[in-house]
Design goal:
Layout lengths: L4 E6 L7 H11 L4 E7 L3 H11 L3 E3 L2 H6 L5 E4 L6 H10 L3 E5 L6 H14 L3 E4 L6 H11 L6 E9 L7 E2 L18 H14 L2 E9 L4 E4 L5 E3 L5 E8 L4 E7 L7 E8 L2 E7 L15 E6 L5 E2 L13 H19 L7 H11 L6
Helix pairs in contact: 1-8, 4-5, 5-9, 6-7
Pfam family, one: GFO_IDH_MocA_C3
Protein name: Gfo/Idh/MocA family oxidoreductase
GO molecular function: nucleotide binding; oxidoreductase activity
């Protein structure tokens, strides 16, 4: 019997964060993956995370975690500015890496990590998990089968509530600084563009504008003003290699219900990918929440049946697509396949995002 792939998570806070909300439930649901080690910057939180999540080892130095022989795969789930240092430490230790998106702050940094992963002979995976949502997989299959004929055009709209209130938690204040590479364009923009490229193919041309429409924010815990430099509006027009055209509008500070809708129109019909109406605010983002798929070839929309049985039941919504990425990453590591987006694809996506002006 093949032993599980042992995972060490950097940034596994015992109380909050993406690791306990998504990664750890996902790992616990997959027999081929086991949580072996955790690392945080403080000894007490590292020990608390080890005890809470059932890991064997706790570290305050991510390089020590990466060098430990019990760790096969290092998972990086911390703030974007720290990604280069932590991923590099894992690569220097000769370990496979799964890093959350955005991989880095710039395409130059992403290309450097890609080269380092290639030199180390290890797999560098990036958390662009929207590709694995059942509705996205089914949409891609239907488009490939010609279910709506030749694609003519597409429209994507996605609105988040992030920044709708003046006061924001201290843990997310850094995302309002464009230099940190974790704002709307970097995070939602990256996930959205990766999704549309996955289902529609390469983007040939991209014209975009950004705007900052909600500049006034304070740290909720202290009242300290935040200097906001990251745009909260992105509007773009894209043209694909196929000739199809697309309009995109992504924005933060939505005061109404947050939502996502992707429509793709062809010569014989239209497909619509929508966020679930009952979803929590965070889960309307295409990479996180449950997505529904509809098709129309006349006047009515009909739901498309989806295969959602690929992950264990009972997982929290935020862990579902992450679990699917883990399952595909395990398969890649076992057979040398290429199911999960790697650092090369991440670098190309960073290059695409850098074509967007940050007004």
């Amino acid at each position: 019997m093949t032993r599980p792939i042992n995972v060490g998570i950097v940034g596994a806070s015992p109380d909050q964060g993406w690791a306990p909300r998504a990664h750890i439930p996902a790992i616990d649901s997959i027999p081929d993956v086991a949580l072996t080690a955790v690392a945080t910057t403080r000894a007490e939180t590292a020990r608390a995370a080890r005890d809470r999540f059932g890991a064997r080892h706790a570290f305050t130095d991510a390089a020590d975690l990466a060098r430990h022989p019990d760790v096969d795969l290092v998972v990086v789930t911390v703030k974007v500015p720290a990604h280069v240092e932590l991923v590099t430490a894992a690569l220097n230790a000769g370990k496979h890496v799964y890093c959350e998106w955005p991989l880095t702050r710039t395409s130059a940094e992403a290309h450097a990590l890609r080269e380092a992963a290639d030199a180390a002979g290890v797999r560098g995976a990036v958390g662009l998990q929207a590709r694995f949502a059942p509705a996205v997989v089914r949409m891609r299959d239907l488009l490939g089968a010609g279910a709506i004929g030749d694609v003519l055009s597409a429209t994507l709209y996605s609105a988040r509530t992030r920044g709708a209130d003046v006061d924001v938690p201290a843990r997310s204040a850094y995302t309002f600084d464009a230099a940190n590479g974790a704002g709307l364009v970097d995070v939602l923009g990256g996930h959205a563009l990766d999704l549309v490229r996955y289902v529609l193919g390469p983007i040939r041309d991209l014209t975009a504008r950004t705007a900052l429409r909600s500049p006034d924010h304070r740290v909720a815990e202290t009242g300290e003003p935040i200097k906001v430099t990251a745009p909260d509006q992105l509007l773009a027009i894209a043209r694909f290699d196929s000739g199809a055209v697309m309009s995109i509008h992504l924005h933060d500070a939505e005061s109404g219900p947050p939502r996502t809708r992707l429509e793709i129109t062809g010569t014989d019909g239209t497909l619509a990918l929508t966020s679930a109406p009952e979803a929590e605010p965070l889960a309307v983002q295409p990479q996180i929440g449950r997505l529904d798929l509809f098709i129309s070839r006349s006047d009515a929309w009909e739901p498309v049946a989806l295969d959602t049985g690929d992950v264990a039941g009972g997982l929290p919504t935020q862990a579902l697509n992450v679990a699917r990425l883990y399952r595909n990453l395990v398969a890649d590591l076992r057979d040398g396949g290429h199911r999960v987006p790697d650092f090369r694809e991440a670098a190309a996506l960073h290059e695409l995002l850098e074509r967007i002006p940050r007004d």
